[in-house]
Amino acid sequence: MEIYKLRDSISLEEKASFTTRESERGLILLDMNKDKIYEVNESGAEIIKLIQKGAKFSEIIEAMMEIYEVERDELENDVNKFLKKLKELNLLS
Hints:
- By secondary structure, this protein is of the alpha+beta class.
- The chain has one domain (3-88).
- The chain is built from three helices and four strands; from the N terminus they run ββββααα.
- It has helices spanning 42-52, 57-67, 72-88, and strands at residues 3-6, 18-22, 27-31, 36-40.
- It has a four-stranded mixed sheet.
- A hairpin with a 4-residue loop joins β2 and β3.
- α1 (42-52) packs across α2 and α2 (57-67) packs across α3.
């Protein structure tokens, strides 16, 4: 089973092929179709939890702005990179 570390700080339709589990460092995603495990840090975990609640991009940005002290443009860029990586891994459609 391959393990990928998502360190990059993305319509958001969650794929039904994975499940999540809390970890000490963030969140673990289990891809049931490909037998792969992905681990995301705390900020990535927060984004995934928001996606699972049906949040749109703008809602994710607003929620993350309340948690982290960061410039909006930088946050939008980081969230876009993270969502792009999830799409590349086929975890989002």
